[in-house]
Design a protein that fits this description.
25% strand, 372 residues, 7-stranded mixed β-sheet, 4-stranded antiparallel β-sheet, alpha+beta
């Protein structure tokens, strides 16, 4: 069975092979959808007898993926009926007994070829060793054709949709993070001891973003046909890069979260993303998104909207730069900020003021506590 919102899936990887024992609720295989990887647990104890859909096959809800025979390998091997041995000559009986040690007998209704599949495929000829490699005159210049993952294809589709269906503009600013750096240095040991989690900068950005969204509701809204949906809640999507592609888990009701809860939830989402354990619920919804290219060294970028959201904040690398302060040149930890927004819904003036509000709140974090 697939979740209601998932129409089909692709077999990503089998965790068990025919002839192996399986236990109830043990993961048999991974199914890749356009959002998450789903685990398929074994419904019963038994022996995986036959695989009906191999890696790369597309499947729908209700399809039979595999057959499981009851019992175990040892039990099946011992179930050779004595009556089948009695007519046999001594030499034939020895051969039958030797064969039962190496292969499980076929269950009723399954052909012998499918009952005992060869688990050690023969080595392909040299010409077939790399089926995806396209030989050219120079053997060092090859091309490998790899199917696009479901997640990558979905991301590509949504990005093209965002470019085609929105009137996207980007505005920029920069923020001095000296006070946040000082706060972290002052309280990081106490914070970690008290809450069991490190104090990062992302919680400050999320808190500042929520406060700015309260002041400029259009940035937290979306367009639905000819209507505008203004959300009275703040579900913030945090872009996370994985080996399979970009995913955006949601911090629900971020306005009600403490700094510690935000930091802990982000760590949990990052761990689940690396292990492909994110659920559909983790990725569904969101009223505003934040992406941090700075963790990869990006200095400046123009983030693409995450439809149907109307705005996205781009964070970048923190770099010490000389800035003018009270008539003096000082060195400060600076970050460029980028806000991409749908101009159909958000006026340029409001977009600039929204980003400036985030800047002010980050440069004077006490405003976050005082709601100033």
């Amino acid at each position: 069975a697939l979740p209601e919102s998932v129409r089909d899936a692709t077999v990503a990887e089998w965790r068990k092979r025919p002839g192996e024992n399986v236990k109830k609720n043990e993961n048999l295989l991974d199914l890749e959808t356009d959002k998450v990887v789903l685990e398929v647990p074994a419904p019963v104890d038994g022996v995986l007898q036959e695989i009906r859909h191999e890696t790369g096959d597309k499947v729908r809800g209700g399809d039979v993926l595999a057959l499981i025979a009851p019992g175990s390998i040892a039990a099946q091997a011992a179930s050779v009926a004595p009556s089948a041995e009695e007519p046999l000559s001594p030499s034939a009986r020895r051969k039958a007994l030797e064969g039962s040690e190496t292969a499980a007998p076929a269950p009723s209704g399954v052909s012998p070829a499918k009952a005992a599949p060869d688990l050690s495929p023969p080595t392909p000829p040299a010409a077939e060793a790399a089926p995806h490699a396209v030989p050219v005159a120079n053997q060092h210049r090859t091309v490998q054709r790899v199917p696009m993952t479901r997640l990558r294809a979905r991301v590509a589709e949504r990005l093209m949709q965002a470019q085609h269906d929105t009137a996207t503009l980007t505005t920029f600013n920069e923020v001095d993070l000296q006070r946040i750096v000082d706060l972290r240095n002052q309280y990081k040991a106490t914070f970690e001891k008290e809450h069991g989690i490190k104090l990062g900068i992302m919680s400050f950005f999320i808190k500042a973003t929520v406060e700015a969204l309260k002041r400029y509701p259009a940035a937290n809204a979306s367009i639905d046909g000819e209507d505008i949906l203004y959300h009275n809640y703040y579900d913030i999507g945090i872009a996370v890069s994985t080996a399979r592609g970009l995913v955006v888990p949601i911090l629900r009701d971020a306005d009600r979260m403490t700094f510690a809860t935000i930091e802990r939830t982000i760590v949990e989402y990052s761990q689940k993303a690396r292990e492909s354990k994110l659920s559909l619920d983790d990725l569904t919804g969101g009223t505003f998104s934040i992406t941090n290219g700075g963790i990869f060294g990006s200095m400046l970028s123009t983030p693409i909207l995450n439809p149907p959201q109307s705005a996205i904040l781009g964070m970048h690398a923190i770099k010490e730069r000389p800035v003018a302060e009270n008539g003096q040149v000082v060195i400060r930890p600076m970050m460029y900020l980028a806000l991409s927004y749908d101009h159909r819904l958000i006026d340029g003036r409001d977009a600039v003021k929204f980003l400036f509000a985030i800047k002010e709140l980050l440069e004077d974090p006490a405003r976050l506590l005082l709601h100033l």
